[in-house]
Design goal:
The structure is a homodimer. By secondary structure, the first copy, chain A, is of the alpha/beta class. Chain A has eight helices and seven strands. Chain A is 39% helix and 18% strand. Chain A is globular and about 80 Å long.
Chain lengths: 213, 213
């Protein structure tokens, strides 16, 4: 034991340094806060790149500014989906976010949407359009509102806050959106989504009388 | 050096064990998720205890259930304030949360409220009542909504989500509230509050013409 003293000390110190380096290198969970309103901006390049990764960039002739904004960040997070997007939204009428979701669906990402029955039928809602492209949509049949405003990307990144996905809210309201990857937040929201998804299964609708032949 | 080998190793191991114990004991930031609706429950005991800490408990004769619920947790977080509460809410009409805020104000906690101009005048809003007790309230004068739904307790605990502080939302809607203490989230919300608070300073109102004598 005595002969091994300095050697063991050196090995221990080396081991500690390696462990510390690995600990500092580990991927930190995403923690981002976005505040709105976000000025109107051109998102054509983002959507085109997502539709055709690596394709020839086509310049957009519109006069809107390009570049970074809270809205472009939100859109980027959504478009980063590779496997699944679970969306739980009171109001969804933004055409840009609607195009993004259609694009993900066409790319093979599993999209599921839960929304509010009262709002989904209003003029401008994207829900009908998305449903017609084959995306699964379920809605409440309750008196209260389905008032959540969250999405979960790839079962890992939670996007949640006060923001409904409407152009008016994005461009005019004071709103917040958090992007989180800590399991303490993501896991309960995943469970909430599955709970609501099951509960809003059309086979549970009580407005179809069970006595119908 | 050689003679000190085992002793140094022991000291190092002991130091490491102490550091590890301290690291595990450190206060973890609060990370809580609350989902609504929350069943109606009696919060008299909570409010009475906050009004008169250590006072004689007076049993409430109401038939509502007591005990833990998402709403009682939200109320507890709010009542835990010792120094300050900054509230930034689109809609605030819950009488129970209104009483809690009045109580904090009476207890000497600095309360500031930012709200939406269109909603604050509606019947049932708590804003007028709170203002009359001397609590500082500021509101937007914009076209868009002040649609945030957050509060910051003691500059350290952020309460945010989809929930407006209305009894209808609390008891009927699908809603979420996050309670967070990670600085990455709390700091931007503190800055957003200060930014809005300054911007909504009545001296900046443009509906008082600058030419008025």
């Amino acid at each position: 034991m005595r002969a091994g003293g300095p050697g063991a000390l050196l090995a221990l110190a080396l081991g500690l340094a390696l462990a510390l380096a690995a600990w500092r290198r580990r991927r930190r969970p995403l923690r981002e806060v976005l505040f709105f309103p976000s000025r109107p901006s051109c998102t054509e390049a983002l959507l085109a790149e997502a539709a055709e990764p690596g394709g020839e960039p086509r310049p957009c002739p519109c006069p809107l500014p390009r570049g970074d904004s809270p809205f472009s960040r939100l859109l980027r997070r959504l478009l980063s989906a590779r496997r699944s997007v679970d969306i739980c939204l009171f109001a969804f009428s933004s055409p840009q976010l609607g195009r993004a979701v259609q694009l993900l669906h066409r790319r093979g990402v599993r999209v599921r949407i839960v929304t509010d029955a009262q709002y989904m039928g209003l003029r401008g809602s994207q829900i009908g359009l998305l449903r017609r492209t084959g995306i699964q949509v379920r809605h409440d049949q309750e008196g209260g509102y389905m008032h959540h405003k969250f999405a979960i990307v790839d079962g890992r990144t939670l996007i949640t806050g006060s923001l409904n996905w409407t152009t008016h809210a994005i461009q005019n309201n004071r709103e917040n959106v958090l992007v989180l990857e800590d399991a303490e937040y993501v896991k309960p929201f995943l469970e909430e989504f599955e709970r609501i998804w099951e509960e809003y299964n059309p086979s549970n609708y009580t407005f179809f009388s069970k006595d119908d032949k």
